[in-house]
# Entry
Amino acid sequence: MNFKEIISTTRNYNFHSHTQFCDGRAPMHTMAAAAVAAGMEHYGFTPHSPIPIASPCNMSAESVEEYFAESKRISADPALSGCRFYTGMEVDYLSPEWGPSHPYFAGLGLDYTIGSVHFIPSQSGEPVDIDGHFDSFSRRMREHFRGDIDYVVETFFGQSRAMIEAGGFDILGHFDKVGQNASYYAPGIEDGEHYRKLADELVDLIIARKLTIELNTKARNEHGRFFPAVRYLPRLIGAGITILVNSDAHHPDRITASRDEAFAILDTLKA
Ligand SMILES: [Zn+2]
Ligand SMILES: [Zn+2]
# Structure
């Protein structure tokens, strides 16, 4: 898909969204109808991919066929015309053995994939979810990460680098996602030299690989932040990186959440 071309013609797009196929809060058809009502012209479904470990947030491999079938029905529904729908997937990178570069994903016939890191290996090698609510995160810090937030941040960015090196995805998802929980756990950590260096190195890699990234608005309302944090945008914009404004909506009411503000920030920085 040529995202750069699409976003040069319209702002009425969202390429990151969830439904009942993973942890979204509404059926796919309801999300599609809400997208049309919101004036979307391009709307991508991106359920959390199947993964080879137990996870309540990820879709099962068994439901992938039904996901494709439902996507087809939505695209053919005359009540939903006016918007082009895409069958995408937000693919989790877990390890060199499982991530967007795995042949399984190329074989599905998806329109595109988002590559995202939500799980990182603990010091003992077990994949642990670092996304989600802070209360679960702080419990996992105790139970899985020995309270070592520097390890968590370092490993998150290390996994992100490994995913980029392996390739196989079209959009890099929320590349500093760990910043949210890390900052609740250790306020100010994102201003520290250690974190900044890791994040800046990832920005270097994004620029070197000319990746397409997103300005993810999901947490703006509740947590007052975008992914990536606005501080990383000037360098990315300066390097000509394609930046999509995506809401990562899990609910029909959130499809356009904080989009205007995100576009305004990009406009100001590009001016
Ligand atoms: Zn995600
Ligand atoms: Zn998502």
About this structure: The radius of gyration is 18 Å.
